[in-house]
Amino acid sequence: MAIGITATKTFKLPSWVTPAVAFNNTTALPLLLIQALDSTGILKTLLASSDDSTSEAVQRAKSYFLINSVVGSCFTFAIGPQLLNAHEEDAPDKPEKEEQAEDDDEEDNSHHTTDSTDDEVTATEEDSLLPAFVVRGSTKLGRKAASRGSQLWRQIPPWAQKSMSFAYQFINAPVIGAGIGLLLGLVPPFHRAFFNDMGEGGVFNAWLMASIKNVGELFAALQVVVVGVKLSNALKAMKAGKGEDEAGRIPWGSAVFVETVRFVLWPA
To answer: Residue 96 CB: number of other CB atoms within 10 A?
Structure first.
């Protein structure tokens, strides 16, 4: 990351260069490589002087790659949006007056929709199955809670707001998943309940962990399929002349720098 930030500021490169250099997005390829080496028998030669079996070495290598992937995903979700601040998704928020006006308009529209007859309202799969008075009450309660929360937030000093905002960015899906994994793996009662055999107290092993393991083994193959579909769609859009309008042109200097770091410096 330090290389990306330094190069971005020194050579005036686009903001996306830093996350492209800092964060790894090829977790599936090392896993597939380890499986390929295992099937060819090369690992047996590498483990000739060790007491470990091939299956143990493969599992240990997968664990290393997955731990590295979890750590990288935590930082990607936490500080990645800040590094990509040039996108339209990071545009400044609307003024409070405009937000209040939009909220009032939405509330009026919701009242109008709720008060209309059932024949005039078209039901969709997103409509609530709760009674109308329950929906109105929960909506009002949510608006009051949001308003009260914004008032309390404005009373906090600016330095505390920045610190809390930065800490809140680390409350994301990878961090939560890593925390659950640490809890299940390091706490003996949870570890026994989730990973031991049924006869040894593993009440969640047969029906829950086995299913999760099967889904996890499909991760590498599914990731390759998803990447292939995205590349195919991008190629079709480029041939149709739409890709450049959506993503813009990629500067040659930035592309060469990213590829040099990823494919030359990192392997070295």
So the answer is: 10
CA-CA distance, 3 to 13, in Å (whole number)? 12
Q: How far apart are CA 153 and CA 164, in angstroms?
A: 10
Give yes or no for a contact between 14 and 86, defined as CB atoms under 8 angstroms apart. Answer: yes
CA distance 86 to 91: 8
- For the record, the structure tokens of 72 come out as 């990288």
* One-letter amino acid for residue 136 of the chain: R
Closest CA to 210 of 222, 196, 200, 229: 196
HSE-up of 34 (CA within 13 Å, CB side)? 18
* 42 contacts 32 by C-beta, under 8 angstroms: no
How many Å apart are CA 180 and CA 62, to the nearest integer?
A: 19
State how far the Cα of 204 lies from the Cα of 54, in Å rounded to an integer.
Answer: 28
Angle between helix 132-155 and helix 96-115 axes, rounded to 10 deg: 170
CA atoms 56, 61, 62, 67: torsion sign: positive
Block residue for tokens 């060469």: 256
Tokens of 255: 């592309």
Cβ neighbors of 164 (< 8 A, separation 6 or more) are 156
Question: Would residue 177 be called left, alpha or beta, if left means φ above 0 and alpha means ψ between -120 and 50 degrees?
Answer: alpha
Encoded tokens for 238? 């480029």
pLDDT at 159: 92
What pLDDT, in 10s, does the model give residues 152-209? 999 999 999 989 988 888 888 888 988 998 899 899 999 999 988 888 888 888 888 8
Closest CA to 107 of 151, 154, 147, 153: 147
